[in-house]
Design brief:
Order of helices and strands: EEHHHHHH
Structural class: mainly alpha
Number of strands: 2
Number of domains: 2
Number of helices: 6
Length: 153
Amino acid sequence: MAFCAKCGSELTAETKFCAACGAPVGGPQTPLPTSTAMSSNLAGLLCYVVGFITGIVFLVIEPYKQDKFVRFHAFQSIFLSAVWFAFHIVWSYLFMGVFWNPFSSLWHLLLLINNLVSLAFLACALLLMYKAYHNERYKLPYIGDLAAKQAGE
């Protein structure tokens, strides 16, 4: 099986010109290019797997740093991770202040709230993975607009 050197379309043995792009078919025919790059939707999904780490990875590796879809999801992953991290820092100071007070039984409620908010962040990340896999640019409030701006949309 032969392929056009210009556009990669499939060619038959007796073809003199490519049916897709019109380029002349001359000399040795090129084999199908082997590309190890994954699709944009899978790369967008993987941006959320480890949060800001995979977001940064997909912003710097070559085939994806030019793709606006992957860039949007990478920036949104980074910003969501930053909000998650900032929430846990503030919450831990609040929690430790109540926890060290021996007369307060409020720490059980704070622990429950912490677990519910962490579960909400996880559910949000899973939703974003699902939307990215289905080629949708689901924007979170504030974070999505900032990510779209950084991605160049």
